[in-house]
Amino acid sequence: MRRVTRLAACLTAVSTLGAGLIMPITAVADDATPAVQTTTTSANVRAAANTATADPIASFDFNSDPDDGAFASAQGDAKATVQGTVDLVNGKDDDNGKAAQLGSGFWLNVTKSDGSALLNGLDDVTISYDSKAAATGGQWTVFAAPTAGAVNGSAPTYVGVLDRTDKTRVERYRNGRASDIATIDKNTGTKDAWKHVDLVISGKTAKLYVDKKFVASNVNGEDLKSILGGSGGVLQIGKGNWGNGEYFTGLLDNLTIYGSALSAADLGIASPTAIEISGSNVKDGKLSLKEGNSASLSATVTPEGAEPTVTWESNNPAVATVDAKGKVTGVKAGTATITAASEADAAKTA
User: Fold this and answer.
1) What does the alpha-carbon distance between residue 237 and residue 247 come to, in Å, rounded to a whole number?
2) DSSP per residue, 74-106
3) 249 conformational bin, left if phi > 0, alpha if psi -120 to 50, beta if neither
4) pLDDT under 50 in the chain at which residues?
5) Three-class secondary structure of residue 272 per DSSP
6) Tell me: the pLDDT tens digits for 246-261?
7) Which pLDDT belongs to residue 36?
């Protein structure tokens, strides 16, 4: 995700009052040290209209039996080839719908209809599905790797989702774990309960949503093409290639894959409506800093479930700077305006 610093003149410390946060920040120097004055303003901006959702490159509802050993995609040029013995049971949506009862005896290999790699050439992808996990440990709902061979344990290369009764974990590795810096690991889900998962990968960024709520993001991954290689690799549903195989135990339904990174609005996630900035030593929306001193600000995005990530900016970094985590540092006496902008909707600022 681009983090852009926009510079703008700020000649006033008066805040603009809006339905969101009202938070100016000011500074007063003591006799010995010049002070840095910073202000914030807030405004509610009308939500932008949702963009149209892209067409899937693969879509499987498992309501019909496979034909000639493979499920045909309802949309896109794709198929899900059965590995093992098909097991379809009542699904999530209604008594007439079916879901795949996955396990070591039944998993899927997803390709284009001609058998070539579905993800070949893609750096942006969205994978959505409903799952009902029944176990912990292993539990690969999604596994994409350069080949179908066993993972090199000392230098693993793959993208995978582990969907357990207690958590959802996203792993992205290329020739090593790198201290798991590209991993998302969050407690989401309970045993024998359905949940909806959306994973959005765009370049080095991955975002995880569960039950239409933002869970976490990570910006430290390798891009998908680098991980999967020039052939596009393999895409397996229900099996990871550690050792002799690690499998997902549970139900999976409504698997949909897009060849683009869908926005939160596209996925039906609540859009940010307001941002509120707070921080220690802030009084009446004003913050005083001496030169060289720092203070931390935090931003709260509403409503609950909307993506909470913001980018921070100072309009006058010669007076005060702000880092990606909201830490403001005084540089010299003067006034600066600190702005937090929603990553999900840059028009929402405080």
Assistant:
1) 9
2) SSSSEEEEEEE---EEE-SS-TT-EEEEEBTTE
3) beta
4) 1-34, 40-52
5) coil
6) 999 999 999 999 999 9
7) 55
